[in-house]
Structures are given as structure tokens and as C-alpha cells.
């Protein structure tokens, strides 16, 4: 089932997500719905707060990046099949020199800005079967994970911009929060019950 994506301005996007228990109701259906929602919106990641749930759950599927001819073949091959569910995740280490990449967000349509992040992370998480993992990721996979991880901590990529950049995009952000934006996927705007 395709769920509406919560737009910028909704308080749920600024909440710290709560850990979820193994018996969280209908978790498998929720995860399936999140993948379907993300794919329909042509995203590479989606966090539970983006569908209105302040819990520590996010998914990533970096396959769209595998078509980027500028990336090394090895990374493209990895990205093509990198699809994971992260539950109650905790980034334990970030390494390397920060690098800029032009990021966007399904909750903030039509806004893209360069964000600086570390190139290598180590993350502890549970998969959809609640098996424990500790893994290290680099490059675009690490970046997508960091972006989605920020969501479960109540942080948006726009929070990482300079005050000048924030002022420059303030009008766009206000319009998004008021529903004045054209998107080709379902969205839920603050102070509106439902909208396509």
C-alpha cells in the first residue's frame, strides 16, 4: 500500500524516533508499504517519520545510483543490489574527510542542496527479522544511510545548511509546508488531512 509522505513543516519530522520492540504491530506490512511508497516516489531511502511514525525505522535501496556512469564500476555494482531495512539503528563511528553531495528529500520536494558528510560509517542495527548487525559502509551507501538516520533523530538535510543557504530556500520551504508544490507522489501537508 502506498502511503502519503509527510511534508516539510510537520512536527513529526523533528521528533526523535523511539526504539521499536520485536512485537511492533504489523511491522512486516509496514516495511513492505514503506518500500512500495519509496519506489513509487523514485526515492533511494525512506524513514518512518516521513510517513508520520516517530520510530527508529528506515529503509534504503540505492539501485537508482547504479546507473551513474561517473561512479567506479565496483561501486555501481554494489549500489545496484544494496537494499536494506534498518531498525533501532545507531551510528557508532564516522570517519574520513567530509565531502559534499547534492542531496534532496521526498519530504522536501524541489529543494536540492550540497550537504557535507563523512565518507565512511559504522552502524549497529537490527534487520526486519530482528537479527543484530554491525557493518561499515562507504561512499554513496554511507551517505544515504546517514541521511535516513538523521530522519530518525529528527534532523533534516536542510538543518545542515549554512544560515545563508537556509535564508535562500526559506520561501520554497514555506510553500512546501503550505502544500504549494507539485509532486507526482502522495503527500500529506501540515494542517491538511489528506491530499494527493
From TrEMBL:
Fe cation binds at residues 105, 147, 151. It is an enzyme of class 3 (hydrolase). GO terms for molecular function: metal ion binding; peptide deformylase activity. CDD domains: Pep_deformylase (cd00487). Its EC number is 3.5.1.88. Its cofactor is Fe(2+). GO terms for biological process: translation. The active site is at 148. Binds 1 Fe(2+) ion. It catalyses: N-terminal N-formyl-L-methionyl-[peptide] + H2O = N-terminal L-methionyl-[peptide] + formate. Gene3D superfamilies: Peptide deformylase (3.90.45.10). Keywords: Hydrolase, Iron, Metal-binding, Protein biosynthesis. Removes the formyl group from the N-terminal Met of newly synthesized proteins. Requires at least a dipeptide for an efficient rate of reaction. N-terminal L-methionine is a prerequisite for activity but the enzyme has broad specificity at other positions. Belongs to the polypeptide deformylase family. This is Peptide deformylase. It comes from Mangrovimonas yunxiaonensis.
Amino acid at each position: 500500500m502506498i502511503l502519503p509522505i509527510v511534508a516539510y513543516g510537520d512536527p513529526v519530522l523533528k521528533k526523535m524516533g523511539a526504539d521499536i520492540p520485536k512485537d511492533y504491530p504489523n511491522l512486516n506490512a509496514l516495511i513492505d508499504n514503506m518500500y512500495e511508497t519509496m519506489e513509487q516516489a523514485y526515492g533511494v531511502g525512506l524513514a518512518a517519520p516521513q510517513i508520520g511514525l516517530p520510530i527508529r525505522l528506515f529503509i534504503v535501496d540505492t539501485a537508482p545510483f547504479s546507473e551513474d556512469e561517473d561512479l567506479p564500476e565496483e561501486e555501481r555494482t554494489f549500489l545496484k543490489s544494496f537494499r536494506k531495512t534498518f531498525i533501532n539503528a545507531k551510528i557508532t563511528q564516522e570517519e574520513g574527510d567530509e565531502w559534499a553531495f547534492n542531496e534532496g528529500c521526498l519530504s522536501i520536494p524541489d529543494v536540492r542542496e550540497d550537504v557535507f558528510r563523512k565518507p565512511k560509517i559504522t552502524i549497529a542495527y537490527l534487520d526486519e527479522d530482528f537479527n543484530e548487525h554491525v557493518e561499515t559502509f562507504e561512499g554513496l551507501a554511507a551517505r544515504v544511510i546517514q541521511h535516513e538516520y538523521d530522519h530518525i533523530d529528527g534532523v533534516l538535510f536542510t538543518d545542515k545548511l549554512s544560515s545563508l543557504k537556509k535564508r535562500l530556500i526559506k520561501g520554497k520551504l514555506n510553500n512546501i509546508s503550505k502544500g504549494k508544490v507539485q509532486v507526482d507522489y502522495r503527500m500529506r501537508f501540515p494542517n491538511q488531512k489528506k491530499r494527493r
